[in-house]
Amino acid sequence: MSKSKGRRPPVAVGHVHLPVKDVPESSAFLQELGLRAIFENEKQTFAVLELRGGTHLIIEKSRKRPKEGTQAPVDFMVDDVKKARAKYAKKGMKPTRIKTGSIHSSFFIPGPDGWSYKITSSHAGNRAV
Questions:
Q1: Does some domain include residue 112?
Q2: Residues in contact with 48: Cβ distance below 8 Å, sequence separation at least 6, in sequence order
Q3: Cβ-based neighbours of 104, under 8 Å, separated by 6 or more
Q4: Strand partners, 118
Q5: Are 53 and 129 in contact (CB under 8 A)?
Q6: Residue 6 counted as domain residue
Q7: Using one digit for the tens of pLDDT, what is the confidence trace for 29-80?
Q8: CATH number of 21's domain
């Protein structure tokens, strides 16, 4: 067991890349999920959004579109998965039912460009993240 148990880890994910067909539409959708807009270029081919902890999600225009329902290469962790699902349902985002696993409970939300976004419960407890 690490000596840093309970303390904020010294390493974080800096950037995650997500190719999309429509940068403004995907950016707006991700902001609706709760990500913070940092930058979008004038050509609308590139945007940066921020998650809790400072991780940046880079969305970049791509000619290719994933097959409808493909799970995005990132999942989003929330403190209260039931409240998050209710909030997204109220916004008309069509979340699936919550599935309970051995570590996480999660659901999916269909997004623009064919991606399906997994929203999952946190297991950090009271530890700083």
A1: yes
A2: 37, 38, 39, 40, 56, 57, 58, 59
A3: 120, 121, 123
A4: 75, 108
A5: yes
A6: no
A7: 999 999 999 999 999 999 999 998 899 999 999 988 889 999 999 999 999 9
A8: 3.10.180.10
Is residue 90 a part of any domain in this protein?
yes
Confirm whether pTM is higher than 0.90.
no
Specify the number of domains making up the chain: 1
Rounded CA gap, 38 and 115, in Å?
21
Q: What is the DSSP letter of 103?
A: S
Which residues lie below 8 Å from residue 106, measured CB to CB, with a gap of 6+? 75, 81, 98, 99, 118, 119, 120, 121
C-alpha distances in angstroms, 71 versus 113, 114, 125? 11, 9, 26
pLDDT one-digit tens code per residue, 80-119: 999 999 999 999 999 999 999 888 999 999 999 899 999 9
